[in-house]
């Protein structure tokens, strides 16, 4: 077994959905807002907003806003092959995330790797720990949405005024 390090982590999940549907859920405004975000803006290399159903491309910039969190995430699409692989900068460009989709017998294996993370104590807590826990929930939410039509994240109750809500609510 490999030694635990704090510069990357891997999350995997089998999802019973088509490869095309899974890719679309990551690579378009309408797709990613269906299970993950309150609002997503993708801008092409010329600064023009992509249409809601239009697939992202290499070099696009994104701005993401979650339900129940006042912050925003900005980054760049580094790779997007239109089928089964996506890579983007994350956590204010301090690290990267890759998404690989592999068709299996009766499901698609989604592998998320977050890597190139700094290993100072603040990053270990906020990025390694926070994102590792966060991605575990969000990948479960994606599976729930695609297999059962249910989103698990809190959309009806405003949690933004609860101190430390992101650390105590499991469905933020």
Describe the structure.
The chain has 172 residues and is α+β, with helices and mostly antiparallel strands. It has a single domain (10-168), classed as START domain (Alpha-D-Glucose-1,6-Bisphosphate, Chain A, domain 4, 2-Layer Sandwich). It has four helices and seven strands, in the order E-H-H-E-E-E-E-E-E-H-H. The chain has helices at residues 19-27, 29-35, 121-148, 165-168; strands at 9-15, 39-43, 61-65, 73-80, 85-90, 95-103, 108-115. The chain has a seven-stranded antiparallel sheet with strand order 1-7-6-5-4-3-2. A hairpin with a 4-residue loop joins strand 5 (85-90) and strand 6. It is globular, with a radius of gyration of 16 Å. The mean pLDDT is 94.
How far apart are the first and last residues' alpha carbons, in Å? 32 Å
Strand content: 25-35%
CATH homologous superfamily placement:
START domain
The topology string of helices and strands comes to EHHEEEEEEHH
Can you give the helix content as a percent range? 25-40%
What are the key terms here?
172 residues; 28% helix; Alpha-D-Glucose-1,6-Bisphosphate, Chain A, domain 4; 7 strands; seven-stranded antiparallel β-sheet; alpha+beta
Structure, briefly:
With 172 residues, the chain is an alpha+beta fold.
Give the SSE layout.
Elements: E1 9-15, H1 19-27, H2 29-35, E2 39-43, E3 61-65, E4 73-80, E5 85-90, E6 95-103, E7 108-115, H3 121-148, H4 165-168
Antiparallel strand pairs: 1-7, 2-3, 3-4, 4-5, 5-6, 6-7
Helix pairs in contact: 1-2
